Transcriptional regulator/sugar kinase
Amino acid sequence: MGITQQDTRQVVAVDVGGTEIKAALVAVGSDHARQLQRRRRRTPRATEADQDDATAGAATVRLIVDAVVELIEELRAAAEGPVVGAGIVVPGIVDEETGVAVYSANLGWRDAPLRELIAARSDIPIAFGHDIRASGLAEIRFGAARGCQDAVVLPIGTGIAAALLVDGRLLRGAGFAGEIGHVDIGHRERCTCGAVGCVEAVASSSAVARRYAERVGRPVKGAAEVATAVQAGDPVAIEVWQDAMDGLTRAILVLVTLLAPEVVVLGGGLAQSGDLLIAPVRERLAALVSFHRVPLLRPAELGDEAGCLGAALLAVGTLEDR
C-alpha cells in the first residue's frame, strides 16, 4: 500500500546500540512504515580517564543523551512537514513504564532516567523502550514473524537478547524478559555482565571477533571477517565459529523448551552470514530436541532497520495512548 498524507505520521526513531547509534525519520501508517532520512554515528562512551564504574556510566549517559537530542533535532530539521514524536530504544534491562534504563553490561549504566533526560530537552513526545523488543515488534508487524502468535526474534550483535511473542503478546517482565544471552551454558569465558559461562560471551558478534583476534594475535574488523575466514577453511576461525553455533543452539533450546515458538527469527550482524549461521544451528537443534516443537529458523527480513522501525512504532503507539 502506498503512503498517503491522510494515514501517515512522521516520527524520529533512534536505536542506541553498543557500537553505533542509528536514527531515522520514519513515516508510519496503519500497516506500513518507511524510513525517509537516515543517520548513523558511533556510540559515544566515557574516556578511560573515568576510572570509577559509576562515574564512567554517568558520563556515558550524558554523552548519549547529547547525541540522541542532536539526532532528533537534525532529523526534524530535515523533515518536510511536522514531526509528531520520537521513539528511543536502548539495550540492556529497560523499564518501559518508568522510562529508566536499569542496566546495560555493554554501556555501563545503571538506573539512568533516559526518557526524562531526553524529554527535558525536546518539545515533542518521547517514547522509550528496549532495542530488542522494538526490533521484534517490527519483525512481527512487517517482517519474518508476521502472522505468528508464538515467535522469538533473536538479534545477535554486541550482545544477545530475545523478543518473546507468546499467544500474540510481547513479554516484558518489568524489563527483564528475554535476556537469553546471560544463560550459563558451561564454558569458562567471563561475560561483560561479570558472570562466567554466558551465551553472549561466546556467541555474540563481538565475542566471535574478540575470541578470534585473541587466538590469531591481531585485530579483526568484526564477525564478518571471521565468517570469511571460516569459508576459507581457517581452522582457528572454524573453532571459534563452532563454539558460537553451539552456544546459540543451546540458548534457542532453552527458548524452545519453555515457550514452544513457531518460528525463531535470527537477526543482527552475525545473521548476515546466512546459511553459515542458520544451517549449523538448525542441524544442532534438531539433534538436541526430543519431543518439543522444532521451530522454523528464519533470517530477519528488516536487517538493521528493525530497531528504528520498532522505535517508530513505539512513538506512534505512545501518541495513540494519549
Notes: The chain is about 40% helix and 20% strand. The longest strand covers residues 33-42. Residues 148-300 form a domain with the Nucleotidyltransferase; domain 5 fold (CATH 3.30.420.40).
